Amino acid sequence: MTEICNSETLPPHRGLHSVIAHRNMATRMALIIFGLFAFGCSTFASAAESGIQSLTNHPVGYLAIAIFVIAYAFVMLEEKLHLRKSKPVLLAAGLIWFLVAGAAAMSGDTESANAALKRNLLEYSELLLFLLVAMTYINAMEERQLFDALRGWLVNKGFSYLSLFWITGLLAFFISPIADNLTTALLMCAVLMKVGEDSPRFIGLGCINIVIAANAGGAFSPFGDITTLMVWQKGVVEFTEFFRLFIPAAVNFLVPAVIMSFAVPSEPPKDATDPVIMKRGARRTVALFLLTITTAVLGHNFLHLPAVVGMMMGLAYLQFLGYYLQISFKRGVARERVWAENHQNTRLLERLDKAVPFDIFNPMARTEWDTLLFFYGVVLCVGGLGYIGYLSEVSQLLYADWNATGANIAIGAMSAIVDNIPVMFAVLSMEPDMSHGQWLLVTLTAGVGGSMLSIGSAAGVALMGQARGYYTIMTHLRWTPVIMLGYAASIATHLWLNANLF
């Protein structure tokens, strides 16, 4: 996407007086902001002297909240404004920490804000490198045409619309715990768009089903969503404990899927197309990705190493495979050319004519950097608000004034409006004293709560762009009561099956 920066200039007819007025207005605004900041710093200084380390009731705290709310409003309007979501939160993160550090410095505290910021940066760096490796593997599989081959296989089997509705939903549910829910949703949506071109109603229903399935599947695995990854890396839930959410997550998917299946069109889809042939190394990439996950889990569970160490080790696996594919490139192409000529496969011959050696840095370059930078902004924004003291107050409201079960259910509903990443990071930053059953409950609700609205999860937002005109906010909203039924059923199932953990 090309961005055009338009510099604003004053119209020439305004003259010198307009210029002076414009500058005076800017000066007054700067003085007002500085005054608020200075007043907040002075009140913080007096609060620090009296032992109250909080800015929640002072202008600096109010200004930080306002900055975060405005930035997140831009995030929620991303589809309308076409402004990448990382931009406003990156700016907000910097502004909030400048306010916090300035207030702390003027009170004579030059260390605590710096130490808090470094803790947030450490948490982010671990997640950044973990996600970088996972996204690189997914991009490598895509480059090797693994997902295209899967899509072609499904299309060419001649399934009915109802069969494809269930197949894509089940695949989304079982693939998202290994890949992430966003990639899985995009893959399954590509299948729907291919076979359902003549049935907009099928595409709309199938997209809703995929969003629900991908979010539900991602809830019972540390690798299925960024929120579950954060919970695992924080150490509040062990790797094997996530699988206790399998049945509740399945209920969350199956309840609305069964009801929606009655609305799936009965006519057959259009004729199939030619199959896609995977590139060399596609299956080996999958095997190495599974080996990478195993390495990360074993290192984390038995050696108590951060999971990112195993993931970075797994990146080396992929690099060595890439090296092998490079040195054997000519020999491999020659062998495939002989096979293609013997089978008169003109499509494969055309592809071999354009083939280039595998380069590990090409999949790495296609990483979703907007998401990673957005995550940086969220972590620092929430960390700054936590340093000010807002998270302590929210934790008191939710987990002391309310009961933990009601709070965790409300957090899931909140994730349908606000992205589940800042919601879950805020909960982890609060560190409420909860049982394992409650931690699993908030993991479940934050993961599947976003399915209630199309804007509530990355999968839903992405599919609105991919299936534009077929899958919309209103298309999803018509089925929200059914999805809420699945949400309630999954919570009830978890409370019943895992009652011994509460």
TrEMBL record:
Localization in the cell: Membrane
Q: Name one GO molecular function term.
A: antiporter activity
Q: Which UniProt keywords apply?
A: Antiport, Ion transport, Membrane, Sodium, Sodium transport, Transmembrane, Transmembrane helix, Transport
Instruction: Please provide the Gene Ontology terms (biological process) for this protein.
Output: sodium ion transport
InterPro entries associated with the record: Cit_transptr-like_dom, NhaD-like
The topology of this chain with respect to the membrane is: Multi-pass membrane protein
Q: Where is the Citrate transporter-like domain?
A: 73-447
- Listed GO CC annotations: membrane
According to the record, the segments passing through the membrane are: 29-48, 60-77, 89-108, 120-138, 159-179, 242-264, 309-327, 371-389, 409-428, 440-465, 477-497
Q: Which domain of life is it from?
A: Bacteria
Q: Which family does the record claim for this protein?
A: Belongs to the NhaD Na(+)/H(+) (TC 2.A.62) antiporter family.
Question: What is this protein's record name?
Answer: Sodium/proton antiporter, NhaD family
Organism, by scientific name, is: Marinobacter antarcticus
Taxonomic lineage is: Bacteria, Pseudomonadati, Pseudomonadota, Gammaproteobacteria, Pseudomonadales
